[in-house]
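so my prof wants the structure for this chain in the tokens format not the other one, which i didnt know existed until like an hour ago. anyway here's the sequence
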Amino acid sequence: MRVWPEPRGCAGAAGSLLAVQPPSAWLSLELDPGTASFFGLPERVQIPAPEDGALPVADGRLSMTGLGEALTRAAAEHPEVLARSEIRRFLDRWPRYADLDRYLRVGNGRFARQVAEQLLKDDPEDPPARVTLACLAAGEDRWQEAAQGFLGALERAPNYAPARLHLALASAAAGDRAAA
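here's what i got, hopefully its the right format
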């Protein structure tokens, strides 16, 4: 992820002095292409700069909650942000994506499965939901099912490296060395 201040038209004739404008109140985030496709987002999104100056980043990584809250704030302040269908879809889904992550981290497979199944009712091809169910299948040694889940997620988000790695591991565990 790279962060840049979002440029706001600063113009001047050749040879004249340019007025220095205050920094923009918006940031442009460049997301990893695999992660962007995994969550159905464009590779570059604009968010309002946090008032306290603290970016929603930990260890150089953007948090799901931080991005979701920033895009929610952007949509509230500037409804035109919602003109992008990818942003509307993400805003509708990100709290459930955060739930998936949290439930998997604490080992609550039952709740993670419930959330994933709800997401799949809305969109049968949802990559985060498919990866969640595939991880749960792998945790129960159902390797073929896990490999199919990772493969399904990669159809929609082909550059998402973690799903590629998990697919290789699940395929190897299922005995399919060629797919691994």
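also thought this was worth mentioning. DSSP finds seven helices and five strands in the chain.
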